[in-house]
Amino acid sequence: MPVFRRRTGSHPRLLPELDDTALGQVRRRVESCWDRGSLDTPVMALMADVLDDAGEDWDRKAHRLRVLAGSAGRALPGIWRERNPGNQSAVLLHAWSDLFQAGQEGSTIDLDATRESCRLAAELLPADPTPWTVYLATLRLERRPSTEPSAVWREIKARDPWNRDAHLQALGYLSPDECGSSGQVLDLLDSVRVMPPNAPAAGLELTALVRNHQRAMASGGVTALGAGEFWRRHDAVAMLDRAAHYWPSPGFLHHAEALADLNLLAYALIKASRPSDAATVLRATGGVATPWPWNAEDEPLAGFSRHYARARETV
């Protein structure tokens, strides 16, 4: 499976697949077939192969499903599922596509039907936590009562204790912006203290800190002026110290969205006024940018590129 590498000469770019080259090839084929206005059987076979190749690397399977759902639009997943009703990946891609569409303004997606698709996918491959993470995401989207996400959360944890997508969904649901509170977020973070330092969900605490920072900045006024204090707290300093030391090392982070976590770390280090550490992390991205968190203040690639150019100058 792909693992990020330092490529200090690479130009900045946004790649949904990050460093997953096999996924990138399939994504481009999917987008190309829709540009031509047709869908051919070989493209569906390529989607099946790239998802099957993930095996029991559930984190990579989820990453590939998310990218393909974002590229395939609404029709293709439905066609693939219709032609392959017993294919678990086809059912899951259709459910993920529903989730994407449901988040759009004016959507008429029936999320109850999406959850039925998740249940079917779970029956077709019981060991896979991915159907349950999509299920959890639908409950979060509808702001359902906490008893429902709690039951789904237990299904996920039984299959994949450090599932990245599930932890990020839980963090969003429990945030003060949605259905929870700052105290509930702290409880979630406390519950993952025993997580291995290079687990797929290793960026959960950093994600929470960056969201808090951006929330404070968006508030404006005195709250925004004090946002820098987030990075001087003992817990934030300790977390940034650990991540800056270990994460840029080749192979330390080996999950599918390691480059996304490096983008997040670089952004946080810049906000914490640690330019030297940020430069090291930026170089480790090889120039691959992610929309978030850079899009909070600028066009994402433009914001990333400015800092990446400075990082390369310090080599």
Summarize this, please?
The chain has 315 residues and is mainly alpha-helical. It has 2 domains: 18-103 and 111-127; 171-315, no CATH class. The chain is 64% helix and 1% strand.
Can you describe this structure?
Strands 1-2 form a two-stranded parallel ribbon. It is globular and about 55 Å long. The chain has 2 domains: 18-103 and 111-127; 171-315, no CATH class. With 315 residues, the chain is mainly alpha-helical. The protein contains 17 helices and 2 strands. 43% of the residues are buried. Mean pLDDT is 91; it is low at 1-9. It comes from Streptomyces benahoarensis. This is DUF4034 domain-containing protein.
Keywords, separated by commas or semicolons:
315 residues; mainly alpha; 1% strand; DUF4034 domain-containing protein
